[in-house]
Amino acid sequence: MFVSMPQDSRHCVLSFLILSRWAGTLLLSLAVAGIGLQPAAVAQTPVAAVAASAEIAPPHGQVEYLWPAGAPGAVGAEEQDKPHLEIFGAPGTGPHTAVIVCPGGGYTHLAYDKEGTRIAEWLNLRGITAFVLTYRLAPRYRYPEPILDGYRSVRWVRSHAQQFAIAPDRIGMWGFSAGGHLVGMVGTHFDAGNAQAADPIDRVSDRPDFVISSYGGLTLQPGVAKPGAMNSLLGDHPAPGLVEDLSPDKHVTAQTPPYFLYATTTDQSVPPLSSAVFYTALVRAGVPAEIHIFQQGPHGTALAQGYPALSAWTGLLENWLRQNGWIAAFASAPTH
Question: Is 186 helix (H, G, I), strand (E, B) or coil?
């Protein structure tokens, strides 16, 4: 039976339901992450603070196209031709650290949930605003379009920093597998922007301030990378010069941003030596870096939930983010 009520009352009920759904989603995210709320922590969160957070609810699931008028090299106008960011804003007024998340999938598909939205939720719980990147994929697109999407994502976030309460000098990237190769490319091939560009987004730098690579393909060196590892991106018979250009370890300089590298020894898809070779290049160039290669673990472990031998890895990452100031001191996530 439908009960009529004044418009103002319906608005209040709707607002209550939205707030209840938001709170329920947060509790569900904490439960999925295996995080237990301590009674003391709950007691320290006043009702007024919750209400204030609700009033400035950050964007969650908002989609922004990198080139609204059409991406360079686009072969059509379908959704797959429109690289975009899905925004998961961190609560609070900021300025927040931001991380652009690049899911893996061999440049042919995206592990969007496992290595995208779940990563965004992990970052949000630590006070970081996340932007999950949908980049263009093979066989419809090969080099350079997916890499161009990576460059553009950094410029887009930096140029919109004020709009989303982001610190423009705390913008990082986090890539998995093929996404790890993409962030390896962006972190070693960047520029300061073109101050004379007609597009204001192109006027800012596409250099990330820090980069996280999870089992990423960071070298194409023969004997380290698996044969044909980047065929989806480069084609079956790439020119030798192109292979060299797309091997991130060959382009590390003193200006390369800090990197955190995670891999597993038993990865059968991307050899752990790929991370080790890149780490060696970082150290030789004097770039701050940290690497963790675990003895066990298959390819594609993401946050490693369900892998007891890898349970420490996300804590090591969080520690690295904190010690470098990319997680603010007040953003204290529950331990797990």
Answer: helix
Composition of the chain by helix, strand, coil, percent to 5: 35, 15, 45
As a whole number of angstroms, the distance between CA 83 and CA 134 comes to 5
pTM for this prediction: 0.82
Instruction: Classify residue 60 as exposed, middle or buried by CB count within 10 Å of its CB (0-12, 13-18, 19+).
Output: middle
Interacting residues of 179 by C-beta distance below 8 A, sequence separation 6+: 101, 102, 103, 104, 105, 115, 133, 216
Q: Which domains, ranges and CATH numbers included, belong to the chain?
A: 59-323 (3.40.50.1820)
Q: At what angle do helices 7-32 and 47-55 cross, to 10 degrees?
A: 100
Q: Which helix (H) or strand (E) holds 273?
A: helix 273-285
What whole-number distance in Å separates Cα of residue 42 and Cα of residue 92? 17
Three-state DSSP class for residue 62: strand
Tokens describing residue 123: 């970052």
pLDDT in tens, 268-314: 999 999 999 999 999 999 999 999 999 999 999 999 998 999 999 99
